[in-house]
Specification:
The structure is a homodimer. By secondary structure, chain A is of the alpha/beta class. Chain A has six helices and ten strands; from the N terminus they run βαβαβαβαβαββββαβ. In chain A, the strands form two sheets. A five-stranded parallel β-sheet of chain A has the order 3-2-4-1-5, with helices on both faces. In chain A, strands 6-7-10-8-9 form a five-stranded mixed β-sheet, with helices on both faces. In chain A, helix 3 crosses helix 4. The longest helix of chain A is centred in the middle third of the chain and has 21 residues. The mean pLDDT of chain A is about 90. At the A-B interface, helix 1, helix 3, strand 5, helix 5 and strand 6 of A face helix 1, helix 3, strand 5, helix 5 and strand 6 of B.
Chain lengths: ~240, ~240
Amino acid sequence: MKRTILVVGIGAGNPEHITVQAINALNCADLLFIPDKGASKADLADLRRDIVERYVTNPQTKMLDYAVPVRDMATPDYGRSVDDWHDALASRFGSLLDALPESGTGAFLVWGDPGLYDSTIRILDRLRQTHDFAIKIIPGITSIQALTAAHGIALNRIGEPVHITTGRRLESTKADTIVMLDGQLAFRNADPGLEIFWGAYLGTPDEIIISGRLGDVAERIVETRQAARERHGWIMDTYLLRKPG
Amino acid sequence: MKRTILVVGIGAGNPEHITVQAINALNCADLLFIPDKGASKADLADLRRDIVERYVTNPQTKMLDYAVPVRDMATPDYGRSVDDWHDALASRFGSLLDALPESGTGAFLVWGDPGLYDSTIRILDRLRQTHDFAIKIIPGITSIQALTAAHGIALNRIGEPVHITTGRRLESTKADTIVMLDGQLAFRNADPGLEIFWGAYLGTPDEIIISGRLGDVAERIVETRQAARERHGWIMDTYLLRKPG
């Protein structure tokens, strides 16, 4: 029997976002791989530990901490810096795999859904070139779903498309657009006549949401985001842009 | 105190897709509104009842069945036929609301996530013109997440956008595209050089997935889909189209 790696979506921040499938998966694991991303993201790590304490009842299931390699932000070539970083991560994941008993099961706990703007699956694919193991993916609630639930809106208009992109790629907004990973605050350059539905720390007690005409609320979002980021040491936010009406 | 309506996402078909938040929400409700969509979708209704039986432990929580008005497919104007149908649904939802005790709580159980290609939120917005009540939305696992988990793939490429649309609107595929609600099998008209990741009855024991070069597998998907639809009396499927490599 091969070793098995579970990639388990644990939701967008609310510990109650976890699914019954995810709880059962975590309780099947010998080892839960817990990343240490440094002090600035300590409350995220605490939230992950809180989830483990609440839901993992199998006494055989242990936690294994590991240090996460840091991406070289100084490299001017984005694709290259991500590629190098993924190599370093694949090598780290290889040692986690080696820590498992033969035919044992390890689990990564991934914020949101493992398929949406998360690199775990891709890094495990890279590791497959050198290691033989099975992968099972458990879906999780994403920040997109937490965003629309918090605003009480549907993501799409009737029969209309939705575009999901990153701040880096937010050039034009032809369709209703969800923007993830926007460190550049790209919404400041979008059409001020658009409606924005913005949210940060979605699903957590620190959740903040702001909506309105982009031209009217953009500055308030920038200031709120900046203040919250200083207070927490980190921020995770996402937003929907759409034509009004 | 106003009455409260909970719109609860219950996942894409696997009863274990349900979240702890959804379980707690269902157990807060006085009434669970259970749609009757006729014999052809009886196994979907059974699945919904199975979820209630598994997870609802509050003896005060009762089920209330209601007949779902049918959309007039003969009306040539799509927008108009949806509009009329939503009016009929809003009126039906009004009588469900009236069945609640004062300051009571009712819950709709919605497949997938209430924000993604589901009309419940929109119909409740319509009902707000005549009734005063609070709405709370509980996110759920969508068929998109079930699809990528089943195929063991990430939805997006590194830093790249994803487009979500319907079969009706699948004109061109500039970005990687998720297609929902494709009764027309629009993928038959897409570039045969694209890769397709297709899935039906995702998350259920009847799950079927097919992937490959579109030109190679399109016919197999059409035949598989047709046979499965005849066997079950209904089908729910979705797929991802993307350029290979």
